[in-house]
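TA notes, week 10

Several of you asked for a full example with nothing omitted. So below is the full record: structure tokens for the whole chain, then the designed sequence directly under it. When grading your own attempts, check the secondary structure regions first.
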């Protein structure tokens, strides 16, 4: 019917129903670049001339509906005018879409994020396709910006402000069925009937589900109350000087009905903020980590984990959650039982559907005899941190492994070069180093020992991606990257306590800097005994801090023993109020961390400064708005 569209196809069937299919040229996923929006506008021009009975908007990509705006265009914004123009472009176009006379429907299959959801929200109907890949969300806040193309206006109208603010302030996504349940989608159908359902719904004349009365009030006369409540929640999580976007989202919704153009100064401030630039950097760093292992054909189905303790148990559970069949070995069944129990809690928390949780549970098999070894594609050793114990285990396991299987160790402190001496094929041992707690920490260090087979390291990265973690390749060196940078930071924090600064004040200094947790609370969480052992290995012979020694002597080991620097109850530290933070304390504490990170880059433990920043952010939670420790140092010079 039309000419000159590169990214869209427009077809009109015999009944007069038009389908606009977005299939962005040269890309595997759809994003809303200026060009794509321009074409969409001319497509609407065309439909103005001969209005269809209904318009269905869908994707031509298997990857999903629309991933969002084109991030590379966002990265190229140089001036405030360009920022405002970008907001204006989508805001005006989607208002136009919302106002067309004929009924419109977004057929959402796969991811529908950011600008993609804003486009779908501007349609009269939204139909989701029930499959695991269908995810809807407005994740702009995670890039330090706001949903300026109508999301802040229409999502609260569609699902009520409480649910809408929750989605916009956290960036979390929801699945197809949940979208229907909360009123975001008008219906949710299985893939095989989606076309038929879309055609029926678009011309059905069916009214939208009205917002419940209370939600209407909350989106009207009670806006101020809701906004104040949301601000209180946000204050607990992030500070406005570090993360201005969530505060801006609440303001724009409350005062301008989600129209950012009505508050151009806010647009300028947010888009030009260092936070937005740095969060974009973090996004790219994450993409870089995700690309590791792409060059490997390795695919795991079965995993065998040996050692069902704190780490092994949780690693096994995570792998089962991510679809692997997992055998979990320990010395006795009794030692495996607590791990299975923890796994059960994880499955029901992460997989709301009891059938899916049950299936994950069935994939996790207690295996005290190690019967899973010959079938496993990946074997992960997570037993006690003793060279001899690990040697004995490797001797027994290696001859039983199937050819091509990966043998990995989760060791934190032992040299892979020492561990592999008993192996027939030492070049095949790789470190796959998870962090505690496994389910919360996105990073996994993939450790390459001297002379290791590079194909094995690539395969290990591919495996880490398969279980949805971020692999960071590191060379074998004490503490690898993450623990090596944390050790001098924790030491500096405890030296400050030795000087008489209270643990609360030390923690407050780093919270104000932007860390998710203060270093003293972190030490309590990790365990003072572990901090002591790490210090011996990584502090370069420095004396242990007095405050640490005294507590370890009294067996005050932190969270796990109920008392460390803080008393712990219900899993929370009982903190007193912090004193005033001495000037320069945060910089003093963070300096050794940054110095060490620089040194590790210079020594080649991690390939470059960007990857060091990525590792420290995803492995320790280092304030993401800074763009990472090395980026922060450079910016503050
Ligand atoms: P853990 O002491 O909680 O668990 C070790 C488990 O291994 C115990 O259940 C024990 O019964 C079992 N085990 C010992 N010898 C065995 C054998 N020959 N066969 C089968 N099972 C055996 O230890 P955790 O903390 O889980 O540490 C395990 C490994 O993970 C260590 O190498 C440690 O360095 C590393 N790691 C620990 C982290 C942590 O935060 N705890 C973080 C990252 C790595």
């Amino acid at each position: 019917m039309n000419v000159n569209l590169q990214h869209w196809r427009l077809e009109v069937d015999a009944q007069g129903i038009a389908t606009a299919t977005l299939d962005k040229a040269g890309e595997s996923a759809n994003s809303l670049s200026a060009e794509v929006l321009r074409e969409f506008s001319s497509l609407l021009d065309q439909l103005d001339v001969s209005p269809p009975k209904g318009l269905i908007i869908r994707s031509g990509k298997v990857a999903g509906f629309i991933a969002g705006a084109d991030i590379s265009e966002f990265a190229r914004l140089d001036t405030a005018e360009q920022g405002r123009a970008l907001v204006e472009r989508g805001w005006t176009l989607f208002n136009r879409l919302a106002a067309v006379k004929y009924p419109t429907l977004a057929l959402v299959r796969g991811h529908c994020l950011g600008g993609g959801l804003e486009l779908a929200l501007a349609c009269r109907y939204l139909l989701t396709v029930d499959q695991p890949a269908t995810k809807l969300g407005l994740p702009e806040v995670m890039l330090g910006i706001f949903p300026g193309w109508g999301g802040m206006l229409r999502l609260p109208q569609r699902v009520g402000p409480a649910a809408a603010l929750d989605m916009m302030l956290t960036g979390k996504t929801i699945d197809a069925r949940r979208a229907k349940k909360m009123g975001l989608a008008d219906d949710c159908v299985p893939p095989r009937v989606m076309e038929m359902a879309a055609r029926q719904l678009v011309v059905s004349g069916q009214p939208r589900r009205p917002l419940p009365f209370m939600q209407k009030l909350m989106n009207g006369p009670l806006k101020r109350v809701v906004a104040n409540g949301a601000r209180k929640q946000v204050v607990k999580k992030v500070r406005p000087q570090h993360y201005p976007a969530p505060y801006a989202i609440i303001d724009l919704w409350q005062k301008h009905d989600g129209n950012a153009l009505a508050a151009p100064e806010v647009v300028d401030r947010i888009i030009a903020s260092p936070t937005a630039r740095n969060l974009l950097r973090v996004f790219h760093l994450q993409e870089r980590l995700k690309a590791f292992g792409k060059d490997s054909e390795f695919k795991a189905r079965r995993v065998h984990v040996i050692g069902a303790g704190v780490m092994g148990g949780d690693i096994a559970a995570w792998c089962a959650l991510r679809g692997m069949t997992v055998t979990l070995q320990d010395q006795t069944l009794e030692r495996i039982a607590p791990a299975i129990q923890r796994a059960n809690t994880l499955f029901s928390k992460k997989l709301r559907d009891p059938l899916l949780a049950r299936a994950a549970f069935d994939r996790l098999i207690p295996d005290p005899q190690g019967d899973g070894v010959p079938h496993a594609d990946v074997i992960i050793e997570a037993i006690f941190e003793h060279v001899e114990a690990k040697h004995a285990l490797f001797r027994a396991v290696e001859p039983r492994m199937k050819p091509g299987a990966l043998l990995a160790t989760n060791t934190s402190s032992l040299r892979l070069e020492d561990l592999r001496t008993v192996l027939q094929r030492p070049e095949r041992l790789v470190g796959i180093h998870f962090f505690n707690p496994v389910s919360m920490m996105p990073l996994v260090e993939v450790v390459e020992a001297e002379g290791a087979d590079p194909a094995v390291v690539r395969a290990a990265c591919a495996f880490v991606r398969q279980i949805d973690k971020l692999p960071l390749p590191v060379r074998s060196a004490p503490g690898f990257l993450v623990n090596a940078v944390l050790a001098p930071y924790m030491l500096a924090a405890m030296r400050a306590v030795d000087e008489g600064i209270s643990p609360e004040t030390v923690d407050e200094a780093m919270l104000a800097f932007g860390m998710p947790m203060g270093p003293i609370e972190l030490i309590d969480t990790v365990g003072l005994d572990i901090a002591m052992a790490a210090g011996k290995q990584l502090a370069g012979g420095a004396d242990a801090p007095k405050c640490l020694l005294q507590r370890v002597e009294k067996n005050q080991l932190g969270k796990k023993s109920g008392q460390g620097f803080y008393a712990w109850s219900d899993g929370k530290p009982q903190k007193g109020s912090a004193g005033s933070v001495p000037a320069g304390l945060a910089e003093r504490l963070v300096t050794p961390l940054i110095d060490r990170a620089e040194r590790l880059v210079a020594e080649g433990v991690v390939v470059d400064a960007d990857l060091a920043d990525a590792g420290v952010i995803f492995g320790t939670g280092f304030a993401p708005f800074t763009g990472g420790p090395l980026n922060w140092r450079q910016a503050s010079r």
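The two ends are 58 Å apart (CA to CA). Use that as a sanity check on your answer.
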